[in-house]
Amino acid sequence: NPDYLSGQSTSLRKGINSCHSSSVMIFLGDQPVISEKTIRAVFQFGCAKQSASDEPFVVRPHFQSTPGHPVFLGNVQKMDFTGLEGDHGAKNIIHEMENQHYLPVRDSGILLDVDTPEAYEKLKRIWLWDST
Known about the structure:
Blueprint (H helix, E strand, L loop, with lengths): L7 H11 L4 E4 L9 H17 L4 E7 L2 E2 L3 E4 L16 H6 L3 E5 L12 H15 L1
Parallel strand pairs: 2-5
Antiparallel strand pairs: 1-4, 2-3, 2-4
């Protein structure tokens, strides 16, 4: 995305416009510890909803009632991404959608952003702790 400095929304729009699928999953590059189990659960739940409806919808994993990523967007051709601006991604579109589905997960990694040196150091300490 040559316009990446204009914010996350430009990358999302570029990806959506390049997509030839009826659904997409959105991952953030600064969330490296989302479990494979969570990714599969969101994908499978989204695919089941996709086969049951032709209306736009979103699936969001929730850890202890807090939404996170990855996000599954179904029937994306019927969504309007033209109003996306800045570094907000699809938040505005998601909040305005009528068909929102929440999937409870036991994966705190859906909430963990690693976008500062301090967050990276914290993540290294957690991983060291978990691997011993």
